[in-house]
């Protein structure tokens, strides 16, 4: 068997309590590798067409990659996937922390959860010792309480816990899954799937590091990167992702007032710099990482914010802040704490709330609908209250618990024009009128609007270290962020495949490894004579499986859309004012992306492409 | 500037005698690299649409690759290209020997010949000293005489000479260009182009080795390969390519009687083993190679064969032997010597003669047409005489000097069904009814039927070292040689692109470097942070340029064909008897190949694909 893997996948059936181990073999790992690769394979193979995402037929799969848990900087990532109750299509999400590495230490490359328990349970795993344990006493509790309880019950304070919160228990469709309290599998409603299985948590402890083929190469790579981080990434350590609130605001790329505007007059009040100078008390990181980009805030003022739950990242400052027109940093930090304590995705929660706010301001909703809450833009307290209501499916919260698209459908009255989503997934804090390729990326993403496996056009607007690094991937020409045509589609294809790959290798995108260094690391860890080309092919295989899954579930060409708002002029006092996504160019770029992916003009993978990827089985 | 290059391209205009040097810069080399990459760029950019291949508008380009002339085993290759007078489309051909390495030593990555001299000339190059010299006294001479004379005139017996023979002087459309007497740029009629320019030869001597970025890695690679050759390639040294006469004959893949049959009753008489045991007196090789796969034969019997001209390789034993039904090894060796002394491509010459033989046997030609020669299958003396007649455009030879397709057009009377060619280029000695993917490869090759940038299906019929080596290229599944479908098209795409790449890097395909080793070598030589992915993209860029060139010159979907014979049952007493290429499957595979190449259903590169390759300029 290859290095980097255990060739062991744990399969737990919660309907009948069976616990099995599978050994899929080297050919499987070489074709599907890890994370999204493994998840897309099992979902396509085993989840029946039309299965209820919240029913026993759905699988919930935690999957590591070959690099997860190895001593390589940034190897603390892990994915969880299932058919998404939020998009009704392919779903997965990735998180950092320590759980993934611990799963590998326990000897598992992945854990597949089948069926549905009839009462609340959690899994307690110590290497081969796997127990399904009663969780009735944990049900309804905050995530920090549950983490503490499980560690105590397992008798090991170093056990790692992944879990859902109350939102997941309640099958809120925008519920997340939480690693180690402060790391989140946020998107696609994976928390609802876990909740539907009555599985509150998995506690895990392992004793075996994954074996490495060539430790010295890895050590050498780490030495170079350690130095690089120390010398060049002070900003990322100091401010994390929050640094970009102010910089995006300056160029017109900070989603504001439910994406009406690209800049926010209160941006600086919710910026990373302000947070650093006020409530930030610490930063933290993941397994094998010295960047420590995660925030920890503590507030004991108008709001009390418990530092156990970390602090808001850029996405959250945007979604709960500018997108809702809120410049009250205390409220944003409180909203973040509640999402984390209750298990809600901050992006979807924020955008669902900003949707409701815009409906409210336009008279589509009134206080009668919103349980008397004055849910207007800028009302921080309303946002905080709505988060609790969503997690508890309380009153108006029950509607927003569906996400903005189903909520808009239920509200009617033209509310849909304010639902900022693709395939039901709320738009993250990246503006397509700034990053034009990213807009097409939202359209084609298998999980709906997503910024992680997407192009960030602004990175490649001039020749520079970033772009030179991309030469080995076949990207050797800078393009303006505003360009939208066939050339941009090529950049989107390469850029997004490469970021999909990080969800397969399970290496953090924030650690600035170059593709060539990652290629070296893959060889060093696995012992495979592999290549960037093979790695990109593995990625294409996974992406095509997600595409086939969605097509099988009824998705069509028309589901690759952008909200109409992005075709309308951007507002706000910023250099990008008036910018639009040109509909004709977007269609050209979309079709070119299909073409470059080997998909036909309706976005359906051709037989030749599937033959290339050895995926003909998936259409039979 | 990058290592491995001089950033100097010599441009000689024979119309007005100007000699210039160009410095295209790093970006050019990174995009077009070498050999076919450089040639396809300049032909597309500078040869006007519809230009007469034998007129002054055509260019003749000698292009090395980054590896040519470096101290890497197998780096003795070089290409020459021009618009082909034989196919009327994109033309190039590759050869070994020493000329390419010497061109690099003289400080040139490529030599571009423009215009047309009004009298016979040759180029004498010593580093920067470039002279256009009178060659009237060399006109009409044999290649060995010319080589000797030029070395003497240059006052350097170590000068290297590339030249045409009498056939090239006469603009015979199947004339070759000769390196160092025994290495041939055989295909595409490049000798006729050189002849049309009144350029008999280029003599060259240089003093500067190309600079290498990382010599120690190269040394290490060479050490490994030197050992590998010594231990595992004895057969290739002992028999060269001639080893496969018997083995292909046994399976039904030896083209016989103008491709009617796949086995030849006289095969063993013209086999490599028989040659070894009779007329072989030596073997030789190319710059920086210890394989020494080239043959040297000497005969002083019914035929006198001068060892200065080397000896026949597999292709020649097939084309002048079995394909013409000739089992007289002396005659085959004589035919080979004459082709080499007179500058004729042995493949095209042999297949043009086998075409005439079949016409003759079927009453389409008679002795009145053939200058009284009894040109029936098996008549070795007739073949030998025809070679001289072709080279001299003497009598019936003038017709065959056009190649079999134009000859068949002139003959009429259904002769075309015996013309074994694609795009006018005669089929080499590889049978599509054995290697089904290769048949599609013949259809789509930019230079017409070619076995070099093609898939040899028989290599990948089971898992093994060869296929494992291809994992990094994205080929990880064995397929039967007889399979013909979308999966085979993927294998053709990857396999043929990889072999196209060897015409760009200019590394010999016979030295068993794995893709990963070549990737390492490319990095070591150039200092580029490159990858197999970028290398394959550079290759796609070149292949797309050749495709665009052909489309511009009027080629269409219907020009991607196979001779009808391959759709008919194979004959002969062999296991493959009755095998056909299935026309429906061939069409499926052809369309799948287009699809995987990013070409539309008519085989036209899509705009998206051209944008990906940064080739939009080529359609404007």
Question: Descriptors for this entry?
Answer:
3 domains, 620 residues, alpha+beta, Aldehyde Ferredoxin Oxidoreductase,  A, domain 1, homodimer, six-stranded mixed beta sheet, Aldehyde Ferredoxin Oxidoreductase Protein, subunit A, domain 3, Aldehyde Ferredoxin Oxidoreductase Protein, subunit A, domain 2, 18 strands
Short description:
Chain A is an alpha+beta fold and 620 residues long. Helices cover 39% and strands 12% of the residues of chain A.
Oligomer, anyone? homodimer
The major beta sheet of chain A can be summarized as: 6 strands, mixed
Name given to the CATH homologous superfamily of the largest domain in chain A: Aldehyde ferredoxin oxidoreductase, N-terminal domain
**What's the helical proportion of residues of chain A?**
25-40%
- CATH names the topology of the largest domain in chain A as Aldehyde Ferredoxin Oxidoreductase,  A, domain 1
Task: Label the structural class of chain A.
Answer: alpha+beta
Overall 3D form of chain A: globular
Number of discrete helical segments of chain A: 23
Task: Report the radius of gyration of chain A as a whole number of Å.
Answer: 22 Å
Biggest interface pair, counts: A-B, 44 and 44 residues
What's the CATH class of the largest domain in chain A, please? Alpha Beta
Q: Tell me the distance between the termini of chain A.
A: 30 Å
Widest sheet, order of strands of chain A = 2-1-6-3-4-5
Mean of all residue-level pLDDT scores of chain A: 97
Task: List low-pLDDT spans of chain A.
Answer: none
Number of domains of chain A: 3
What CATH architecture of the largest domain in chain A do you see?
4-Layer Sandwich
Percent of sequence in beta strands of chain A: 5-15%
Total count of strands of chain A: 18
